[in-house]
């Protein structure tokens, strides 16, 4: 159970993050050793009464009583694509409403003044002399469980969710989910939605699955400023909102499982997003990657151990729709999940709630968002008491530190542990569909060789600029040790 967390990571990660390239996830260390009072269910309706301020952040179009107030270009159209950043969000191009909401939350004292973390050579983010597991920071990378975050499923429940889509590799998974009538939550990356509109629409419209936020460009979120965080959340919510007839996501999952009290607060206070982590990591993303011993067999062995193991707590397993290997890992494990008696539900169905803040079910009528924000303007201040179940920053009882240490990890599978264990880069499945997605890029991998490539041409307006940036990164990636 115990194993060491890698002490350092390739500088590649930082390069990639800086270059808007999409990376994938790894494991927050130590969650199995946490003794804090844990939430095992997704939140109920505590934040839904009253008017939800996030509503105003996305209904900025001309008002039309026949819809929810926004003109929605057809998903995949050039008009649709033109509405979003083609790479890392530029704060000077945000809707002013987002920055106003951030400023209001900060002014109200609802965003803790946790310093931006520092990341060196792709290692675990650090906070200077501050204890990352302490009440002030409470970094998920180090296994600290904020009371508001979700790590476990109810007993006997398998929470089905997949990160990093939509991608061309999602197609096989979606077919399987459809054939087996499995509902799941897709933690989607904004730029991947932009690049793979057909897969996105299939997940939402045909599967009727839940769409959750996995940020716009998949950075280590704790390394970003408040303003940068707003863009990563905001644009992803915007493209989901505007591509689903106005459904506003309620949940998000941090890339690499990297969040802390500040990041979690901005997600919640500005955008109403609940943070979902996981309690087991298949490390499926590292299958068949140079430098890793992870194989389909080793992933299957880990899954088999968890599936046939204790039913308490229920399982939230980190899985990806990232490569053919990650997809096949779930497909191969599915019969055993079924035969072992797990109640398989979408991650966001754990508490019987809709995945969206403003609709009655996935195909229900979209209604104005309602809910509670700690930074609610005066009109909603009367609802502030409902935020009591949220994080009370500055209170020692709120951001509960876990007893986990960075040297501990929950998963029993092999491979890297710790959020810093993520070693992924940009690649593509070679599909004709546009994609920005991650193929594992472990330490020492020569990214300029092999099958990694990127297809931007169908989606990005600023193709030359982005290609130049990516080329620079890929070349740079060759030389790190
Ligand atoms: Zn991811």
TrEMBL record:
It is found in: Cell membrane. The keyword Kinase does not apply. Keywords: Carbohydrate metabolism, Cell membrane, Cell wall biogenesis/degradation, Chitin degradation, Cobalt, Glycoprotein, GPI-anchor, Lipoprotein, Membrane, Polysaccharide degradation, Signal. SUPFAM superfamilies: Glycoside hydrolase/deacetylase (SSF88713). This is chitin deacetylase. Residues 1-24 form the signal peptide. It comes from Phanerochaete carnosa (strain HHB-10118-sp) (White-rot fungus). PANTHER family: CHITIN DEACETYLASE 3, GLYCOSYL TRANSFERASE-RELATED. Residues 156-345 form the NodB homology domain. InterPro entries: Glyco_hydro/deAcase_b/a-brl, NODB_dom, Polysacc_deacetylase_ArnD. Its cofactor is Co(2+).
């Amino acid at each position: 159970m115990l194993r060491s967390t890698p002490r350092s990571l390739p500088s590649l990660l930082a390069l990639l993050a800086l270059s808007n390239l999409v990376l994938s996830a790894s494991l927050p260390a130590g969650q199995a050793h946490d003794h804090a009072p844990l939430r095992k269910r997704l939140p109920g309706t505590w934040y839904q009464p009253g008017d939800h301020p996030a509503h105003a952040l996305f209904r900025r179009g001309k008002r039309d009583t026949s819809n929810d107030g926004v003109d929605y270009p057809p998903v995949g159209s050039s008009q649709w694509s033109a509405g979003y950043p083609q790479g890392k969000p530029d704060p000077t191009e945000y809707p002013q409403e987002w920055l106003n909401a951030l400023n209001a939350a900060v002014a109200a004292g609802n965003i803790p003044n946790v310093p931006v973390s520092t990341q060196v050579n792709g290692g675990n983010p650090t906070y200077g002399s501050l204890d990352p597991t302490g009440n002030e920071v409470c970094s998920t990378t180090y296994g600290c469980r904020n009371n508001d975050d979700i790590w476990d499923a109810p007993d006997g429940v398998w929470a089905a969710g997949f990160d990093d889509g939509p991608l061309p590799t999602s197609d096989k998974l979606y077919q399987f989910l459809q054939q087996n009538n499995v509902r799941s939550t897709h933690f989607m990356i904004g730029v991947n939605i932009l690049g793979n509109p057909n897969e996105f629409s299939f997940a939402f419209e045909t599967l009727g699955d839940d769409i959750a936020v996995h940020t716009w460009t998949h950075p280590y979120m704790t390394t970003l400023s408040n303003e940068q965080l707003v863009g990563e959340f905001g644009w992803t919510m915007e493209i989901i909102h505007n591509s689903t007839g106005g459904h506003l996501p309620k949940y998000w999952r941090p890339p690499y499982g990297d969040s802390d009290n500040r990041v979690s607060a901005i997600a919640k206070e500005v955008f109403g997003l609940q943070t979902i982590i996981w309690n087991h990591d298949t490390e499926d993303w590292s299958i068949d990657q140079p430098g890793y011993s992870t194989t389909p067999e080793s992933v299957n062995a880990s899954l088999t151990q968890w599936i046939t193991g204790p039913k308490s707590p229920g399982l939230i397993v980190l899985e990806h729709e990232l490569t053919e290997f990650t997809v096949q890992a779930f497909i191969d494990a599915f019969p055993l999940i079924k035969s072992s008696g797990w109640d398989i539900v979408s991650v966001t169905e754990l508490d019987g709630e809709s995945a969206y803040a403003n609709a009655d079910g996935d195909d229900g009528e979209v209604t104005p968002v309602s809910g509670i924000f700690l930074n609610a303007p005066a009109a909603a201040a009367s609802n502030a008491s409902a935020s009591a179940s949220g994080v009370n920053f500055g209170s020692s009882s709120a951001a509960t530190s876990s007893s986990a240490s960075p040297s501990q990890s929950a998963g029993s599978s092999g491979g890297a542990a710790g959020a810093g264990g993520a070693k992924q880069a940009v690649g593509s499945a070679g599909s004709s569909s546009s994609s920005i997605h991650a193929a594992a890029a472990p330490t020492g991998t020569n990214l300029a060789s092999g099958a990694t490539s990127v297809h931007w041409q169908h989606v990005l307006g600023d193709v030359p600029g982005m290609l130049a940036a990516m080329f620079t990164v890929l070349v740079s990636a060759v030389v790190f040790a």
